[in-house]
TrEMBL record:
<dbReference type="InterPro" id="IPR029063">
    <property type="entry name" value="SAM-dependent_MTases_sf"/>
</dbReference>
<feature type="binding site">
    <location>
        <position position="43"/>
    </location>
    <ligand>
        <name>S-adenosyl-L-methionine</name>
    </ligand>
</feature>
<feature type="binding site">
    <location>
        <position position="89"/>
    </location>
    <ligand>
        <name>S-adenosyl-L-methionine</name>
    </ligand>
</feature>
<feature type="binding site">
    <location>
        <position position="64"/>
    </location>
    <ligand>
        <name>S-adenosyl-L-methionine</name>
    </ligand>
</feature>
<feature type="binding site">
    <location>
        <position position="109"/>
    </location>
    <ligand>
        <name>S-adenosyl-L-methionine</name>
    </ligand>
</feature>
<dbReference type="InterPro" id="IPR011530">
    <property type="entry name" value="rRNA_adenine_dimethylase"/>
</dbReference>
<dbReference type="GO" id="GO:0005829">
    <property type="term" value="C:cytosol"/>
</dbReference>
<comment type="similarity">
    <text>Belongs to the class I-like SAM-binding methyltransferase superfamily. rRNA adenine N(6)-methyltransferase family. RsmA subfamily.</text>
</comment>
<comment type="function">
    <text>Specifically dimethylates two adjacent adenosines (A1518 and A1519) in the loop of a conserved hairpin near the 3'-end of 16S rRNA in the 30S particle. May play a critical role in biogenesis of 30S subunits.</text>
</comment>
<protein>
    <recommendedName>
        <fullName>Ribosomal RNA small subunit methyltransferase A</fullName>
        <ecNumber>2.1.1.182</ecNumber>
    </recommendedName>
</protein>
<keyword id="KW-0698">rRNA processing</keyword>
<dbReference type="Pfam" id="PF00398">
    <property type="entry name" value="RrnaAD"/>
</dbReference>
<feature type="domain" description="Ribosomal RNA adenine methylase transferase N-terminal">
    <location>
        <begin position="23"/>
        <end position="194"/>
    </location>
</feature>
<dbReference type="InterPro" id="IPR001737">
    <property type="entry name" value="KsgA/Erm"/>
</dbReference>
<keyword id="KW-0694">RNA-binding</keyword>
<dbReference type="InterPro" id="IPR020598">
    <property type="entry name" value="rRNA_Ade_methylase_Trfase_N"/>
</dbReference>
<dbReference type="InterPro" id="IPR020596">
    <property type="entry name" value="rRNA_Ade_Mease_Trfase_CS"/>
</dbReference>
Length: 266
């Protein structure tokens, strides 16, 4: 990789540049990119992870918001003419436009300050994504992968696991970054289902059902759904109204959402 001018990480973009080559090689091994695959990287920074991927795929798309990083990235990766740089906000980017000849793969060291809404944005486009590999704050990865009964199991867990199989791969310490963050990071693999295990009749209805269910997580379902569902209605769909929301799995929330959808249609 050629050397470009130094670039100071910007707090407003949540930038922490990965520099540990051992970790970079381990991430690339987990992704296992192959020539011809359409890989899209969010926030490539100076291209440390990008080079490990594009050396295998030969072409690649990257989405970068910081315009000052783009010339640095192009200099560092000058020997890869098929690097396509999109100067854009990933939160507003239409990833579907890149899936013109088949599904895409998405990777990135995501800014911690927008990681959750960005994941929700990507889940809305999960039908054109084969898999996603992200570096995230460890707590966010733990929330994504949490199972019913876990203390971190919540809205993000349910919605991510509705669309995807979620695997926490390994932890990355602060010293692997410049500047080092104040928390541990982790790598997560999210693989969208080709066929959803359970299907919500109305996705917005499922999102609302999950949000209401977790709005007061220490209260029971009977209390959280008060005014929306009676205890008897919950029992009629095999949901115990005395449970707290973190005890329900994804099919349980889908069952509640579908019941409410059918009730509204009456």
């Amino acid at each position: 990789m050629s050397k470009a001018q130094p670039h100071k990480a910007r707090k407003r973009f949540g930038q922490n540049f990965l520099h540990d080559m051992g970790i970079i090689r381990r991430i690339v091994a987990c992704i296992a990119p192959k020539e011809g695959q359409r890989v899209v990287e969010i926030g490539p920074g100076k291209g440390a992870l990008t080079e490990g991927i594009i050396s295998a795929t030969k072409s690649m798309d990257v989405v970068e918001l910081d315009r000052d990083l783009i010339p640095i990235l192009k200099v560092n990766l000058f020997k890869y003419p098929d690097l396509r740089v999109h100067e854009a906000d990933a939160m507003k980017f239409d990833f579907r436009q890149l899936a013109t000849e088949g599904n895409i793969r998405v990777v990135g060291n995501l800014p911690y300050n927008i990681s959750t809404p960005l994941i929700f944005h990507l889940l809305e486009q999960a039908d054109v994504i084969d898999d996603m590999h992200f570096m995230l704050q460890k707590e966010v990865v733990d929330r994504l992968a949490a199972r019913p009964g876990d203390s971190l199991y919540g809205r993000l867990s349910v919605m991510a696991q509705y669309f995807c199989s979620v695997e926490s791969l390994f932890i990355v310490g602060p010293d692997s970054f410049d500047p080092p963050p104040k928390v541990d990071s982790a790598i997560v693999r999210m693989t969208p289902y080709t066929t959803l295990p359970v299907v919500a009749h109305d996705l917005k209805g499922l999102e609302d059902t999950v949000r209401i269910g977790f709005q007061q997580r220490r209260k029971t379902l009977r209390n959280n759904y008060k005014g929306t569902l009676t205890a008897e209605e919950l029992e009629s769909i095999q949901i115990d109204p005395t449970l707290r929301p973190e005890r329900l799995d994804v099919p349980d929330f889908v069952r509640i959402a579908n019941y409410l959808h059918e009730k509204k249609a009456l």
